[in-house]
Design brief:
The structure is a single chain. This protein is an all-alpha fold. The chain has one domain (2-62, 75-502): MFS general substrate transporter like domains (Growth Hormone, Chain: A, Up-down Bundle). The protein is built from 25 helices and four strands. The strands form two sheets. Strands 1-2 form a two-stranded antiparallel ribbon. Strand 3 (497-498) and strand 4 form a beta hairpin. Helix 10 packs antiparallel against helix 11 (196-202). The longest helix is centred in the C-terminal third of the chain and has 33 residues, at 413-445. The chain is globular and about 70 Å long. It is a multi-pass membrane protein.
């Protein structure tokens, strides 16, 4: 009866303005994250920034002009400037798990906004490298808190039938932030006097203010309010966001999940229980696979590929604009398709698309691009650029957004905050590792790095085929009954057995 009642609730639930506005405002956390991801590479390449904070690196870059195409950018010390963001996010997400559960999703987003503002001020205004580094740490804390709270907020407040599309607003803002950052970097690099890097870092205050002000406007999710004992407020908010008085079935399910959550004293320890293995394994695997698709390899090497087509000094701008636009447009495609064709179909289709495009790129570079010269013909360069865009579009409508969506909607309420914390932590850890070792990999493996990542794409596609369940149109509090207990493999973790023994 509960499922039937819930189905009736779903059919009556409206797509209300308060939900749309709340999701748009909350997803600005992704805009901030994307801006920080996109701004770092451009800033660390600006001569004014290097002269001021990394004079030794600047001096060495002037001697690397004759280096191999694959090794010219390899400097681990400078990479740490970018990687600090991910390290700080990794640590802060565990604190964010506590605030998300105890203070709510909305206040956690407010804390993230404050971290972003403080970090932006430190980065853009101070003269000493130590203060800039502290600013990066504050920004990383903002990323940890925002990436913890925003996906949960979006999944919990959205109506079931469009939950995937609204959740992907987070990733859409990430892609918009990256595109905006690259355009800002291009303009800032042309500012005379060598202080353009301050403009790049300072404009991070725009998305930071959007998230901060947005978190003061939005309502908290019914799940969070009920979990914290605010039952009347939770019921009232549920009626407002669903646009109907008939919310009792959904309210009862959230209340039941909340009661179960209150019995859990140690949520992180509870995550390791037999019954919680399926969503935990899926969440961890999704983050590892998302980073090992090779997206960073494609985006990093794109300017060199574009340069072979005769774009000259504007190669980086063309690469940023074209790939950034493809990234944004393909993410929009995902918003419209994810709740229609499903999560699995997008992941599997994209796996084939990414695998083929990376193989083509790797093979072309193996035979046509030597260490110190670019030998691509105009025709082959066109083929490679098309393959780059093909790869980016596939990632943007699959592993990019779904790497965040699926973990945010599959954990039960009692472990949702802790599960999202592990998700963010694993993502930031993989970002840090890829950020630190990719340049070394490119230098040592050369074109083989693309073949390396294509092998990972094959593995992750097989993982999806056999182990990732479909979650579209399933109410978030019914995942256990309708998803995990129905899956051919994961159901063994949800039966009356634990560790192979009867409970």
């Amino acid at each position: 009866m509960a499922s039937a009642s819930t189905a009736a609730d779903i059919s009556e639930a409206k797509i209300t303005p308060i939900v749309i506005i709340s999701c748009i405002l909350a997803s600005s956390g992704g805009l901030m994250f994307g801006y920080e991801v996109g701004i770092s590479g451009g800033v660390t390449a600006m001569p004014g920034f290097l002269k001021k904070f990394y004079p030794d690196v600047y001096a060495s870059t002037q001697k690397l002009k004759t280096n191999s195409n694959y090794c010219r950018f390899n400097n681990q010390g400078l990479q740490l400037f970018t990687s600090l963001l991910y390290l700080a996010a990794l640590v802060s997400t565990f604190f964010a798990s506590y605030t998300t559960k105890r203070l709510g999703r909305r206040l956690t987003m407010l804390i993230a906004g404050i971290f972003f503002i403080v970090g932006t001020v430190l980065n853009a205004s101070f003269q000493e490298l130590s203060m800039v580094i502290i600013g990066r740490i504050f920004l990383g804390c903002g990323v940890g808190f925002a990436n913890q709270a925003v996906p949960l907020f979006l999944s919990e407040i959205a109506p079931t039938r469009i939950r995937g599309g609204l959740n992907i607003l987070f990733q859409l803002n990430v892609t918009v932030g990256i595109l905006f950052a690259t355009l800002v970097n291009y303009g800032a690099a042309k500012i005379k006097g060598g202080w353009g890097w301050r403009v790049s870092l300072g404009l991070a205050g725009v998305p930071a203010l959007l998230l901060t002000l947005g978190s003061l406007v939005v309502v908290d999710t019914p799940n969070s309010l009920i979990q914290r004992g605010k039952l009347d407020e939770g019921r009232a908010v549920l009626k407002r966001i669903r646009g109907t008085e008939n919310v009792e079935a959904e309210f009862s399910e959230i209340l039941e999940a909340s009661s179960a959550a209150k019995e859990i004293k140690h949520p992180f320890k509870n995550l390791l229980k037999w019954k919680n293995r399926p969503p935990l394994v899926i969440a961890i695997a999704m983050q590892i696979f998302q980073q090992f698709t090779g997206m960073n390899a494609i985006l990093f090497y794109a300017p060199i590929l574009f340069a072979t087509m005769g774009f000259g000094n504007n190669a980086s701008l063309y690469a940023a604009v074209i790939l950034g636009a493809v990234n944004v447009l393909a993410t929009i495609v995902s918003i419209f398709l994810v709740d229609k064709v499903g999560r699995r179909m997008l992941l599997l289709e994209a796996g084939i698309q990414m695998l083929l495009s990376q193989l083509v790129i790797g093979i072309v570079l193996a035979f046509k691009v030597k260490d110190h010269s670019n030998n691509l013909s105009y025709g082959l360069a066109i083929v490679v650029v098309v393959m780059v865009c093909t790869f980016v579009s596939a990632f943007a409508w699959s592993w990019g957004p779904l790497g965040w969506l699926i973990p945010s909607e599959t954990f039960p309420l009692e472990t949702r905050s802790a599960g999202q914390s592990v998700t963010v932590c694993m993502n930031m850890l993989c970002c840090f590792l890829i950020g630190q070792v990719f340049l070394l990999m490119l230098c040592s493996m050369k074109y083989g790095v693309f073949l390396f990542f294509s092998a990972w794409v094959l593995v992750m596609s097989l993982f999806v085929l056999f182990l990732v369940p479909e979650t579209k149109n399933v109410p978030i509090e019914e995942m256990t009954e309708r998803v995990w207990k129905q899956h051919w493999f994961w159901k063994r973790y949800k039966d009356d057995y634990e560790g192979g023994r009867v409970k």
